[in-house]
Amino acid sequence: MNPDTTIALSLISHTNAGKTTLARTLLDRDVGLVRDAQHVTQEATSYPLIDTSEGDALVLWDTPGFGDSARLARRLRQQSNPVGWFLSQVWDRFRDRAFFLSQKVVLNVRDQADVVLYLVNVSEAPDDAGYLAPELSILEWIGKPVIVLINQTGRPRPRDEEQAEEARWRVALGARPIIRAVTTLDAFARCWVQEIALFNLVARVLPDASRVPFGRLVNAWQVRRQVQFDESMTALAAPIAAAACDREPVPEAGSAGTLRGIGRSLGLGADAADSARSRASNAIAARLDQALRRSTDQLIAVHGLEGRAKEGVLARLAGGVALDAPMNEGKAAMMGGVVSGALSGLAADLASGGLTFGAGMLTGAVLGALGGAGIARGVNLARGKSGAMLRWDDAFLSGLVGSAMLRYLAVAHYGRGRGDWVETEYPPFWPPLVAEIVEKHRDRLVQVWALREPGCKAETIALELRGVLADASREALERLYPGALAGRGPDDAEPPDPR
């Protein structure tokens, strides 16, 4: 590495604040040791984050945490006299190993870092952090620009809540020239968009000579994340496109049999396993379940994570299929009546299967596909069906788009430091945001589903659907992290001066 084009970021904090966990998330690989104990990291270690063909390099230093910060601050002030040097370099080395390591990390940061990333624990109120004042003195002794990272926030939160927390810490940190920015970057729940926002903050505090190589490094980082994003969209689009073209034949039956079969497929009958239509519903749902799990596994791998998707994502979704068959107006009217009475039960099945849609979207899916006699007449004339087939209806497929976006957000926010991927409940502000964005793209989705006729080609649908998913997901990220995708820092503004 060329020292003139190498830029170093040093992660420092009080002990057991999550530095190594955050390092793993940023590096997309396991480094160091992670354990809920003090002084797990024993020495400062550098790791390459990214480099460029021009020879630029961005490295990340993971360091031992500060322990007795007040004592450390006093010892650093004694460095210039012989007694202080002896205590630091000889006495502490053999008598207090952890304290000696704390001094070594400070010297390392002073000598190696271009920018200091100082982690604070949001679960601890600033006023209760007795170590904060001495550690700020240590940062001033180091003399490098500092960006404060608010860590251990739990699951993702709305931006206004993050801003309130950041403002609280700015006040607690006070008017110190070394503190150049305060932002949120949680090791467990960060998103790659926040990494870009962080790098934009770093660019602001670097000396002029470092900004050009750092700009190339940021561009390389964005390219890497864009490739990851593109691969994610491809993985999400594939199973939905396959489902759009999927069909399952259903044996013919009289109107009474039709009514019983539909009722059972919607969960209204007792012996669903004995029904040919229920078996058809289960078959088409099982194929979609397998495809969604494969897609999620691909998504996990693309993001450098480990773990697998849960089995049975669609275990209770057989009732979400629509009957795509020639039917007379009497059968269609009976079908509409059955479905209208089963809406609440179907909603419960969808939710328990792990895919949660807005009530309006769900109602549209059922009534739009399984409506009254007028819809039946249109289906017969337009398609000329000669046999009964089950297929996923258009609005249900649109619901899968919303579900795919939520899965993407969940994986994209899952820090590697958390360990293997585990599916958890979405933050409550995500589903309404995603539903609103999907609704904005309704016309485009209608055009995509129209490609199912006359001959359905999953590859063609996947290509078009991937574009919709990419635009909708970018909009979601922009709404969650304003300005970051456009190359600006958080909220496109310098942190307010607490003075």
Outline of the structure:
The protein is α/β, with parallel strands linked by helices and 499 residues long. Helices cover 55% and strands 10% of the residues.
Total domain modules: 2
What would you call the structural class?
alpha/beta
Major sheet summary line? 6 strands, mixed
> Which stretches are poorly predicted, pLDDT < 50 over at least 5 residues?
33-42, 82-87, 254-270, 312-386, 492-499
Q: Helical element count?
A: 17
N-to-C SSE series?
A: EHEEHHHEHEHEHHEHHEHHHEHHHH
* Mean pLDDT across residues: 73
Described by the principal axes of the CA atoms, the overall outline is elongated
Fold and architecture overview:
The chain has 499 residues and is an alpha/beta fold. It folds into 2 domains: 6-190, 3-Layer(aba) Sandwich (Rossmann fold); 229-480, no CATH class. It has 17 helices and 9 strands. The strands form 2 sheets. It has a 6-stranded mixed beta sheet with strand order 2-3-1-4-5-6, with helices on both faces. A 3-stranded antiparallel beta sheet has the order 7-9-8. Strand 4, helix 5 and strand 5 (146-151) form a beta-alpha-beta unit. Helix 9 packs parallel to helix 10 and helix 11 crosses helix 13. It starts with 5 loop residues before the first strand and ends in a 19-residue tail after the last helix.
Draw up the topology in text.
Layout: E1 6-13, H1 19-27, E2 45-51, E3 57-62, H2 69-77, H3 82-95, H4 97-112, E4 115-121, H5 132-142, E5 146-151, H6 159-173, E6 179-184, H7 192-205, H8 208-245, E7 248-249, H9 255-265, H10 276-302, E8 321-324, H11 329-352, H12 359-369, H13 373-383, E9 389-392, H14 394-412, H15 430-440, H16 442-450, H17 458-480
